[in-house]
Amino acid sequence: VLENQDLRDSIKPQKVEFHSLNFNTTLHWQPGWAREARDALYFVQYKVYGQSTWQNKDECWGISSHACDLTHETSDIQEPYYSRVRAALAGVYSNWSLSHRFTPWRETMIGPPMVTVVHSNKSIIVKLQAPRSPYKRKRGSKIPMTNYYDLLYQVFIINNLLDEQHRVLVYEGKDKVIKIQDLRPGVSYCIVAKMYVPMLDHSSAYSSRQCTVL
User: What keywords is this UniProt entry annotated with (predicted)?
Assistant: First the structure.
């Protein structure tokens, strides 16, 4: 019996965590510390905080991977959720490992906007597109993150003559097309942008840089 107890403890999943970007939500965990834990299978359940019964996640029932997509199960973005994972090996089941409480609206990371740059003689036109959620409208298009949050675009310009790292904020607001004027011809400029959530004081990562020479 002791050996089973040891095995049970040594294959128990570690660090059960939700990772979420634009409401694409995945549960991640690490295998137990036993060397044999590499061969364990995993079982995932989830529930809304306050519910008494756990739901099985059928697609993540007896899987060998260390991640499980719970995007669909956490689609009520204001609700707090829990998930838990157990491992099985050679007919022995570990205890459940519980995640922290996860509220999508509060905790999902928002991705950067898509940036397109068009230049005219002394100005740059910047076109911005907010990231999209995995949730769809009736007609099938994905709902942008701007539907769920009051989001601002932050646009920065990098003058490559001066300093690659020096980003100057040139615009903050909701416009999807902005014009940056009075720039110097023959100079290489790069644009990067972020999404900013004033209410939560969260920023996205920077977009990839789009560069142009006037």
Answer: Disulfide bond, Receptor, Repeat, Secreted, Signal
pLDDT tens digits for range 87-106: 999 899 999 999 999 999 99
The 10s digit of each residue's pLDDT in 162-181 is 766 789 999 999 999 999 99
For tokens 């990839």, the residue is 208
Contact 145, 132 (CB under 8 A): yes
Top CATH class of 114-213 equals mainly beta
Which amino acid makes up residue 183? L
Q: Which pair of tokens denotes residue 189?
A: 């400029």
* pTM of the model as a whole: 0.89
How far apart (Å, rounded) are the C-alpha atoms in residues 27 and 97?
12
Alpha helices in the chain (DSSP H): 2-10, 104-107
1-106: CATH architecture? Sandwich (2.60)
Per-domain boundaries in the chain: 1-106, 114-213
- Residue 91 CA to residue 14 CA, distance in Å, equals 20
Helix (H, G, I), strand (E, B) or coil at 76: coil
**Contact indicator for 87, 13 with CB cutoff of 8 Å:** yes
Torsion of CA 73, 74, 78, 83, to 10 degrees: 100
